[in-house]
Amino acid sequence: MSRVKVAVLGATGSVGQRFIQLLDHHPFFEVTHLCASENSAGKTYGEVMKTRWKISSDIPAYAKNLVITTPDPAKTKDVVLAFSGLDSNVAGEVEKNYANAGIHIISNSKNHRMDPTVPILSAEVNSSHLEVLTSQKRKVRLLPIRTVRSWVLQFLSNLFWIVLELSPLCSFLCRRSAALVILEFQRWIF
């Protein structure tokens, strides 16, 4: 199975950096686009982040040579999914544009958390809410996450996940009709 092409929105911020780190060598996702403000657009991620990288490990090699673009769905047409670490001041409009363009969004911002058609996911509590994504009446493709330590980041980083069968997440992201059920053995990810 080929990996799902993804973008990281807000790639230069601390949440975006964490997404980039956790997506390094990920078996299901391939980061093809890094998006940030106009101040960083047009430069390579390595150039911009040389003095701004906050995480203890080095900048992942795959990210260093990617050219940063502004967050615009027209510039990231080939992605199926975008991980958004955008600040709440800009996330609302940008994430809505991505969702309206048919790109699924996993968001760390607070902007869409009260929308009744947008599920909030916390794996320990309500992983069944992924089913809401397939039955949404309008074409909103937003999935807010509880915190940076939430289910999505656990999914990205946890080496102890066991894949039992294909699930709604995989079918939703990969556009395949299968069900993915994943069990997690408890461990800290930070």
From TrEMBL:
UniProt GO BP: methionine biosynthetic process; threonine biosynthetic process
GO MF annotations in UniProt: aspartate-semialdehyde dehydrogenase activity; NAD binding
Domain of life: Bacteria
Domain Semialdehyde dehydrogenase NAD-binding stretches: 5-133
Record-linked InterPro entries: ASADH-related, NAD(P)-bd_dom_sf, Semialdehyde_DH_NAD-bd
Listed CDD domains: ScASADH_like_N
Record Pfam families: Semialdhyde_dh (PF01118)
Protein name per the record: Putative dihydrodipicolinate reductase domain protein
Species of origin: Leptospira interrogans serovar Australis str. 200703203
